[in-house]
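FORM 12-B: Structure-to-Sequence Request
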């Protein structure tokens, strides 16, 4: 039976933020990319809870208007100005790193970035441990 490491989160927003940080570690995001991704995922998470359909969520959040709202929210929360051009460069970077993916003619976040309260990791290690046995390193 797999080990379960419990993680108690005091708020839904903290849960989403920690989940995205954990899952996006494989993408090697910068702090700004991670912050923008958190804002996107939080909006999608709330809309999903409100039972808004998948396509409507994607359009509302990742459309030019939705991205504008996220950029404004970023500026408000960080108290740092960001031009539309600069923000769009971060969105492109998130696409290049596969945090945002093309789905049925529109964009969405990578499915594994949608917060789940319980996940399981399975590691596959190709290197054999034998080469380290008998050494002090």
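FORM 12-B RESPONSE
SEQUENCE OUT:
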């Amino acid at each position: 039976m797999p080990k379960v490491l419990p993680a108690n989160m005091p708020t839904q927003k903290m849960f989403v933020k920690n989940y995205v940080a954990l899952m996006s570690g494989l993408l090697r995001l910068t702090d700004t990319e991670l912050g923008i991704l958190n804002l996107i995922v939080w909006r999608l998470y709330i809309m999903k809870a409100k039972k808004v359909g998948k396509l409507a969520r994607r359009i509302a959040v990742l459309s030019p208007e939705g991205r504008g709202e996220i950029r404004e929210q970023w500026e408000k929360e960080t108290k740092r100005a960001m031009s539309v051009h600069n923000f769009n460069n971060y969105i492109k970077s998130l696409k290049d790193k596969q945090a945002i993916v093309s789905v049925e003619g529109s964009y969405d976040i990578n499915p594994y970035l949608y917060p789940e309260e319980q996940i399981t990791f399975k590691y596959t290690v190709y290197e054999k441990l034998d080469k380290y046995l008998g050494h002090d390193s």
